[in-house]
Specification:
The complex is a heterodimer of chains A (420) and B (523). Chain A has one domain: Orthogonal Bundle (Cytochrome-c3 Hydrogenase, chain B), CATH 1.10.645. With 420 residues, chain A is of the alpha+beta class. Chain A contains 17 helices and eight strands. The mean pLDDT of chain A is 88. The longest helix of chain A is centred in the N-terminal third of the chain and has 29 residues. In chain A, a hairpin with a 2-residue loop joins strand 4 and strand 5. Chain A has a three-stranded antiparallel beta sheet with strand order 1-2-3. Chain B has three domains: 98 residues, Roll (Ubiquitin-like (UB roll)), CATH 3.10.20; 94 residues, 2-Layer Sandwich (Alpha-Beta Plaits), CATH 3.30.70; 225 residues, Rossmann fold (3-Layer(aba) Sandwich). Helix content of chain B is 24%, strand content 19%. In chain B, helix 8 packs across helix 13, helix 9 runs parallel beside helix 13 and helix 9 packs across helix 14. Chain B is elongated. Classes of the chains: A alpha+beta (420), B alpha/beta (523). At the A-B interface, helix 12 and helix 13 of A face helix 3 of B.
Chain lengths: 420, 523
Amino acid sequence: MADTAPTALESRRRVVFGESDVADFDDQDLPTEVMPLMMGPSHPAMHGTVRIALEVEGEKIKTADIQIGYLHRCFEKEAEHATWTQIFPYTDRLNYVSPMLNNVGYALAVEKLLDLEDKIPERAQYIRVIVGEISRITDHLTCLAAGAMELGAFTVFFYLIKGREWLWELLEEVSGARLTHSYVRIGGVVADLPEGWAARLREVLGKVRVAIGDADKLLTRNKIFRDRMDGVGVIDKADVAGWGLTGPIARSTGVPYDVRKDHPYLVYDRFDFDVPVGSTGDNFDRYLVRLEEISQSMRILDQALTKIPAGPIIVDDPRVALPQKRETYNTIEAMIAHFKLIMDGLHVPPGEIYSFTEGGNGELGFYIVSNGTGRPWKCRVRPPCFANLAVLTKVLPGLFIADVVPTFGMINMIGGECDR
Amino acid sequence: MVTETSATAENVTVIVDGKEHKFPKGTNLLEACQSVGAKVPFFCYHPGLSSPAVCRQCLVEVKGSPKPVPSCYMTVADKMEVTTNSPKVLDVRRQMLEFTLLNHPIDCPICDKAGECSLQRHYFDWNGRLARNEGVKVRKAKVVDVGKHIVLDQERCILCTRCIRVCNEVAKSPDLTMANRGSHEVLTTAPGHRLDNPYSLNTVDVCPVGALTAKDFRFARRAWEIFSTPSVCPGCATGCSIEVHASRGKIRRLVPRENPAVNKFWMCDEGRFEYKTVHDHRVMLPLVGGKRARLDVAVTEAAKLLRADGGSSPSRVGVVFSAGASNEDDHALLRLAADGLKTERIYVGGRPPGWSDAILVSADKNPNSAAVRAMAPTARTLEDLRADVASGAVTALVVFGNETLVLAKDKLTAVVALASHQGPLLASANVVLPVAVWAEVDGSFTNKDGRVQRIHAAISPPGESQPGWRTICALAGKLGLALDYTDADDVFAEASARHAFLKGAVWGPASQPVQLRFGESRG
């Protein structure tokens, strides 16, 4: 653990309302029969296509079976037939609200196999942190916006999604694509930050800060919102290890596990930031953790923009990094390097690696086996929301049908990542 | 650690990269290094040719020698200490590659060899650095028509002389030579010669770069789009081992595959063009009386026609074998003739004999004559068939292949043709059943020396055609003979149990087409 103590969010829960309207009416319930109810796969609140097969007794959930796989795209099998570099576009489509984080996670895994970890230029590492943290903000913004909208707070949705769009515009400037960036490369990143980009990012962060403030004001002390969130979907701290929970879900229960702090990678150990944790592990804690993490990411961004050094953005090794186009078109040496990298793929020495980073939803792991050719022999992903989603089987029983919406929303299941 | 590579008494002990190994006396040093896993790149060396040591790419350090020595030019000696990976050797290797690229054009995007180019591979593996020279490259002739099948690009040539040695040592026709000196040295045809010998396309295979390209394959396909399948050339009775290179369902070229017992590393130009006939003028659908029919309907009709003539003794049904069919097709057809039609009137046809030489080309232009000779020693010729038809001894026929056969129809009541190609035979056939050709089936050929060699399916059969033995099984079933083969290896197993010439032959593992990109480039 780092020296900075995790920020406890307990004080923010302080507003106390009167007795909840949703009192325990069990004794007044009319006798009912157990009824199966399918939520999804095409239910507006089941984002990313998932089916939750419920058994309900009246409004109360007796059992919940989470049925995933509707967005399975054979990522892992496809990866075995693509060169190491060709896999980046596939990783974009894992957690598609924070593609940069997937790009970075995958690149780090391959670089460990190549023993390139220490050779990545500093500027590239800073750029990776910057685009990654922007992606974390967009990930959390998406989750909060959609979660609020599903509880009726449509205004908040617009405030936050607008912020997300500004940030995506900045990432588009960097990478050329609004969503599917494919910006990171093995050995660095593909292009430097455009001129004046840092200033534009600071400006946008200011605007996002206002939007977050507005959302905070509209939601945090809002009784309608709190009634649906407080004490709903409580996850026990003891379940974190058992179910393999990570990210905001684990932190909402009070477990301060954050890969960036506990196993620092890139240059994360150079930044001053806190890991916010909740106290009760309910939906409202998950909301608070995400809200606070956005602020912490902004802190990291602020420091990174100040500290970022000048220099190259990709390793100086023609066997890993594509030569400049100018070189490729004008010299046979670079042409051969370009040709071999594109057609055969870069040669990763035989071996296996498990490398993990902090994704938008928690620990994003890549387990890669190389047999020394231009393609991975195996490329397995540990998607954080796969484990996070599974715990709903335990959490949902006992809740009302209406509680599925905020509980599922605050888990932030992303189909592309969960189903791969 | 001592590795025993050979059991002969005449072994010498050599230390390669610090490890002691034993090699037979007289082993080439480069081959010795390769055999124990020490990687040494080379351009001019070729296992099937002499070594001139001109490319200097295989330099290694030998203890006691003041300078690095070309390993391809040395033989192993007792107590020799060789280093293939010292900093000095690696540096020399890098420098030689840099020299080789000095005047090399930036042609990869338009070069046919790109993707299977030794220069690309070795440069990336052993140097990989970006350019340091800023000089102007020496320009040479780009599209030189050196022969009937071959175009030369002098700029791309790295002067390894492999092609010259192929002409001198394999084709015995000294058509190529070097001219000029230094940076201006070029490959060219010898005065008064053109590169027109019958083995000229082997120069394209041995060319480590894209200097010599085949007109037939030029700009046809990129190397990495090609799927390679091991097979045997159907061009003559020699049976050279080949790779069938296909992409998108069509064969694009045939190249020789190493086989020390038959063709070493080579094949003739004529054999390379055997693939041209695979795709043209094919029979796609079953025909009954010249009209399209379903396969089962056509087979039933064929059986009915053949039965209508049956019962007479001796049988008046003739069966015509093809010397181009596989062992499996021949065996199934033999079962049909002997056990289904109960006839002894067996004939064999094939392509007429042609030219031959003492190198590889055989006068018998059929790949599997030996098998028919061994399976049906009493088989008679097509001349005999014509006589028997004229005399009325044969009134019904089952013809496999032999599409060029012209028959007098008025004397025949039924002709069932198992044909792959269009031809005069089809006009006189009552029923035509489409069959696949050598490149589309798993099977085996027996060459003139009795060597049984596997062929593998490289592409799918077109239309409704299927392996001949499968159609024969269907026909036999309608004639009351149950031939229960599931796959070609079932036919082979039964055939090898019944025919002496197949005794001891092994079917071997299945071989799927491998994309060259995934199967490591050929370069």
